[in-house]
Amino acid sequence: MKHFLVAAIILLGLGGIGWLAVQRLSNQPSANRLYGNVEIRQVDLAFNSEGTVTRLPKHEGDPVKAGEVVAELDGDTYRNALALAQARREAAQAGVTKLLNGSRPEDIDQARANVANARAMLANAQVTFERQKALVATNAVSRQAVDDARRELDTAIAQVALSEAALAESVNGPRIEDIDIARAELRAAEATAALAQTQLDRTVLHAPSDGIIMTRVIEPGTVVLPASVVYSMALTGEVWVRAFVPEPLLGRVVPNTRVDVFTDSRPGRPYEGRIGYVSPSAEFTPKTVETPELRSQLVYRIRIRLTDPDSGIRQGQPVTIELPNSGGS
For a disulfide at 304, which of 230, 265, 273, 300, Cβ 3.0-4.6 Å? Predict the structure, then answer.
């Protein structure tokens, strides 16, 4: 009886060892299999201007297309600023055009007429002065009358010089420096108008890419500041899977290698994927990897782009990756 018990204990021990060996072998990861998750890719949408939100057409779960309008601000203030800037730009443009066109023929004719009139006044003042000077010698007029005539003559001489200078300016046109100043003022006005247009454009918020609204943070009527989040959106334009590969399998995961990606919802119909990135440095496997045996090893992070994603793929979803037997593409 005693020997029977000893033999039974030995058999049970051997059986336990065998069972553990089988379990250990069954838990070893497949040389062709990796585990990972669909990457969570999202973006927070926010205005780059301040104002009152007037329109929020999207709700949680709504799909959006790249470029689609997802929110708007009250743009009256920005439209008025743009109108003012455009008016100043037009005035500056008119100033440059005026200088470049030079004097009108009518302006030159008027300047010439002013010269002729000034010369006639000078001739009259000269005659008056000579007459008064002759009369003062016979005491027919006072010395004061001669002084007044002399003053009128000097004034007429100055007026001739002034009118001749105005005529020369009309004929020669504006100075180069004046044109340069006007052009600089026009550039400043154009930049101000462009800035006002940009600020007005920023009152309309567009989706940067295809996606699905995850969270609508505010409601219409909210006054927002620049960078205030309006929506959180999950990106769906491209679907990537993140996985980790141990060092012995690095030769099997070269970029552009084709792999099959399985999900629990359709285990018999894999998605096609292409390895797009392999990390150049090793790291400890994160605890999100499904196989406990790999969690204590150093591994390399890889990213796989799915070429045929559909609505069955969700961000954060666990997946299984099957590598090709040959390791080729």
Answer: 273
